[in-house]
């Protein structure tokens, strides 16, 4: 299988390095990732300046790797249209530093890169690992990402969807299994106000404002110790309301 691998944490991030090492054991991998950290870029693309592409050598990685002076979505676009030099069967995005659960998927460059592949009608998998005290279990995340791929690739290859995978911060023997579930509720970043030396107001993010965790969601099962898998699709149409809204006009 030919896999395009990207992320939003940058070409030198530990998460993408660890995932590449695991995937290239059994698959052909092409790595195309941002040259710098581009987290929370959502689905932004670069319109008004050219993209700079550089071939990069990653120690211990046999796969070809490129850095792009753009966003995660840019990486998928350039990877599929120019750098892959042939058809790609699957796109992986990750492993992200920190979870992409709940409504965080709307801001996530990791998930948006996977969705960009979906727009090209290529199935994709986004992978994120919980961050605790500056650490994440990237090795365990890579193993579970590959496990999900091997168990679902036949069905996934026939479906134009994204699988969003989140891995809790637990030792491998303490993970309770895999749960397929819906996304959880909103988790807010909130601001506090300060002043700079000019007396101007400065707003800074100050962590997370947690909301109540709904049962049977990714946030719920991650807290319980499960790896979560949520199928996503880029078409945001509310089909249940489509006919009703037509009647309004």
TrEMBL record:
Identify the EC number(s).
Answer: 3.1.3.5
Q: Needs which cofactor?
A: a divalent metal cation
In Pfam terms, one family for this protein is SurE
Fetch the InterPro entries from UniProt: SurE (IPR030048), SurE-like_Pase/nucleotidase (IPR002828), SurE-like_sf (IPR036523)
Q: What is its main location?
A: cytoplasm
The Survival protein SurE-like phosphatase/nucleotidase domain is annotated at 3-185
Sample GO molecular function, one term: nucleotide binding
What is the reaction catalyzed? a ribonucleoside 5'-phosphate + H2O = a ribonucleoside + phosphate
Bilayer-crossing residues are none
Compartments where found: Cytoplasm
Binding residues annotated for a divalent metal cation, in chain numbering: 8-9, 39, 96
**Top EC class of this enzyme:** hydrolase
- One of the record's GO cellular component terms: cytoplasm
Keyword terms, alphabetized: Cytoplasm, Hydrolase, Metal-binding, Nucleotide-binding
Manner of cofactor binding, per the entry note: Binds 1 divalent metal cation per subunit.
In the record, the note on similarity to other proteins reads: Belongs to the SurE nucleotidase family.
Q: Tell me, what does this protein do in biology?
A: Nucleotidase that shows phosphatase activity on nucleoside 5'-monophosphates.
Xref: PANTHER family: 5'-NUCLEOTIDASE SURE, 5'_3'-NUCLEOTIDASE SURE
Protein name (record)? 5'-nucleotidase SurE
What species does this protein belong to?
Answer: Tissierella praeacuta DSM 18095
């Amino acid at each position: 299988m030919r896999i395009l691998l990207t992320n939003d944490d940058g070409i030198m991030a530990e998460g993408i390095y660890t995932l590449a090492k695991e995937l290239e054991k059994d698959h052909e991998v092409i790595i195309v990732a941002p040259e710098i950290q581009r987290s929370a870029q959502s689905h932004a693309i670069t319109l008004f300046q050219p993209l700079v592409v550089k071939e990069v050598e990653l120690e211990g990685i046999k796969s070809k790797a490129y850095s792009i002076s753009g966003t995660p979505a840019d990486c998928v676009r350039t990877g599929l249209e120019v750098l892959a030099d042939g058809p790609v069967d699957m796109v992986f995005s990750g492993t992200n530093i920190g979870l992409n659960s709940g409504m965080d998927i709307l801001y996530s460059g990791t998930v948006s890169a996977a969705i960009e592949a979906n727009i090209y009608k290529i199935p994709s998998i986004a992978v994120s690992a919980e961050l605790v005290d500056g650490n994440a279990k990237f090795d365990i995340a890579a193993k579970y990402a590959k496990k999900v791929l091997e168990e679902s690739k036949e069905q996934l290859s026939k479906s134009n969807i994204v699988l969003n995978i989140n891995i809790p911060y637990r030792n491998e023997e303490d993970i309770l299994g895999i749960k397929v579930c819906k996304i959880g509720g909103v988790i807010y970043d909130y601001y506090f106000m300060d002043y700079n030396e000019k007396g101007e107001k400065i707003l800074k993010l100050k962590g997370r404002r947690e909301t109540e965790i709904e049962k049977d969601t990714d946030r719920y099962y991650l807290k319980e110790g499960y790896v979560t898998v949520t199928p996503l699709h880029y078409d945001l149409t509310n089909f249940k309301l489509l006919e009703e809204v037509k009647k309004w006009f």
